[in-house]
Specification:
The protein has 77 residues and is mostly helical. It has four helices and no strands. The longest helix is centred in the C-terminal third of the chain and has 38 residues. It starts with 11 loop residues before the first helix and ends with a helix. The mean pLDDT is 82.
């Protein structure tokens, strides 16, 4: 069984990574994927990624719709 790090403790897996990989791991789920060992751990990361991409997809589509609407309004004036 893998010991879980405390909230303020760096996981042992990412402690061995080079600085650029540590930076990537701190900004993304790369570190969580790298440290995951069980299907449950992978499933929690997968769920988080699905929620994140659903939000981002909704944001991009709403931004695109607003942009197109503003262009249509300008062109009709």
């Amino acid at each position: 069984m893998v010991a879980r790090p405390q909230p303020n403790e760096e996981p042992a897996v990412t402690a061995t990574l080079p600085w650029h990989s540590k930076t990537l791991a701190s900004l993304t789920v790369y570190g969580e994927l790298f440290a995951a060992h069980t299907p449950e751990e992978f499933a929690s990361v997968h769920t988080r990624l699905q929620q994140e991409w659903t939000f981002n997809g909704g944001f991009v589509s709403q931004f695109t719709i607003n942009l197109l609407n503003s262009q249509l309004i300008r062109s009709s004036m």
